Amino acid sequence: MAAEIHSRPQSSRPVLLSKIEGHQDAVTAALLIPKEDGVITASEDRTIRVWLKRDSGQYWPSIYHTMASPCSAMAYHHDSRRIFVGQDNGAVMEFHVSEDFNKMNFIKTYPAHQNRVSAIIFSLATEWVISTGYDKCVSWMCTRSGNMLGRHFFTSWASCLQYDFDTQYAFVGDCSGQITLLKLEQNTCSVITTLKGHEGSVTCLWWDPIQRLLFSGASDNSIIMWDIGGRKGRTLLLQGHHDKVQSLCYLQLTRQLVSCSSDGGIAVWNMDVSREEAPQWLESDSCQKCEQPFFWNIKQMWDTKTLGLRQHHCRKCGQAVCGKCSSKRSTYPVMGFEFQVRNIFSDLFSLVSRTSLATFHEGKHNISHMSMDVARGLMVTCGTDRIVKIWDMTPVVGCSLATGFSPH
Description:
It comes from Mandrillus leucophaeus. The protein is mainly beta.
């Protein structure tokens, strides 16, 4: 059911350690068990499986549990060994795993949503299970009583979730491209702010409570870093993926961001450098360089007896320009552009270092979810191809991860 990959270690790319096969449908979530050679997976085939590495080097399922509905999301709390599984029917189910990971007992069902559950987070301090769903809401329920504590509705599907355990702030991304920051209380919540920047559905979020940075990935193939702690509205745009960004993980110790996209792309971004904010795009009725009219500027087209041109934007300064004036292309990594984009400053760009501030790798399978065991430098990916892959990321992110640091 699982093959051990014997790859020769590479100094600059992730090393594939194992490949797990056995699910009959898309694998929606895969989580590494801390301090164990084990993986927990949830799938559209309605099964939850716990895979343990045997002496042969292969992973075999020690737990195989069939659910009533396809599994769409999962959270695991290692200290209490509690698993929360979100389903396509809107329910969240809680299980407790035995110490040897060979038995799983059902605890409770939470009627959290009326439609597919998209994300789950468990807070031990408050005993809340917080979840988002395609019924356009975020809900938080008490794990002691099983009662619903509160709900907040959005105008579109709630697609992803992050939570600050100290302040009880929840970050909810939705399919309209917005991120809503909520303050959750025992029986109510308040909207703090709304973040707008993506041109497509927000597909994943990552919150770093130390630096107070929020990272968001979207179906527009881009990543945005929001400096929440700075309170100045500073944002950084990262563009390097060629398909929608599906998962994020920020390594606070090494100041690196790991991102995965649905085409199998794995990127590691160096965030320990001085980066520039991308400019706001300016609007104009004519090219701000040659002054030729754009195609909607009927008056200037009539006065000058010329055809209108299509509007583009220089990625360096944000000016509205025509295609001829923005025909130059260049990468600009310091502004997050890791592939060639339009600009009007060829002379300036030739003076600027074009050294990439990210490394890009091929996962060679569809990736819909990724998670990391930061302390060991391991990453697990899964997707619609029904395959789960375990990677050694230390050649890419550095051996300094093996210091015992782990995310919240």
